[in-house]
Amino acid sequence: MRVSGIQLAYTDDESVEDRITRVCALVRAQHDVDLVVLPELWSAGGFSYREWGTRAETVEDGPTVTALKQAAKDLGAYVHAGSIIEATPEALDRIRAHGHDMTAMPVLPDGERGIWNTSVLIDPTGEVVATYRKIHRFGFGNGEPKLLEAGEDIVTVPIEVGGRTVTLGLATCYDFRFPELFRALLDAGTEVAVVPAAWPAPRVREWSLMARARAVEDEIAVVAVNTAGYHARTQMGGHSVILDASGTELAQAGVDETVLTADIDIDAIHARRAAFPVLRDRRL
Ligand SMILES: NC(=O)CCC(=O)C(=O)O
């Protein structure tokens, strides 16, 4: 399975409309790939909390997913859209009622907000085939936990690549710090974990460590696509990486905007599990 990760750099100066146009051109330029992966919240801004209110959208007809559906269809490949600030129509009304400033909204109980950090997988015909609402929200009481609802569901999705079915497991950024999620994704059949991110530079060493740890401990391939650039007064860490099931780098990026591409051998994942059957020794 050939995968391209677009480690996108952006700044506060770029309009969302211009960024969507730029990203769709990058997606369309990824010829001869099976899957293209974008970073977390690349259109809304990973740390642009004050702008999230004007950039919240529905999966069904928001600008980000609508544009990427067409790009996926034009390319004829799966596109993991990274993630969006997903809001129900009712939540959008609430946001409007507060002048599009989510930070000015009363903090509703967790189960009632209707706003999530949602990743979206689009198939080669341009149809949404899976969504994953980020389970672990980053911010220690501010940012995501204050503004967004936590996802509840573990999501795996079978995709058809080269005449075979490959099972993707979906996670997002901060989720990397919770190995139990990846063990649950493994138990649900995951062969390749796809992890979009907006991970800042000061902690990028931990990002790199955990991407490799999840690949090694669960014997899964990992496609970890981070953000680059500087926005919302946050320097982003880059260092996206595509790993095989032994944690070996198939492709890796530095700190700049980069497209990294690799061929993931799905048979090699199962060969690794047979040759080094550590998972059979699980006792808990
Ligand atoms: N967007 C994120 O989830 C950031 C996570 C992060 O910076 C960390 O875990 O450290």
UniProtKB/TrEMBL annotation:
Keywords for this protein: Hydrolase
A GO term, aspect molecular function: hydrolase activity
Residues annotated as domain CN hydrolase: 1-266
Recorded family membership: Belongs to the carbon-nitrogen hydrolase superfamily. NIT1/NIT2 family.
Protein name: Carbon-nitrogen family hydrolase
UniProt source species: Brevibacterium samyangense
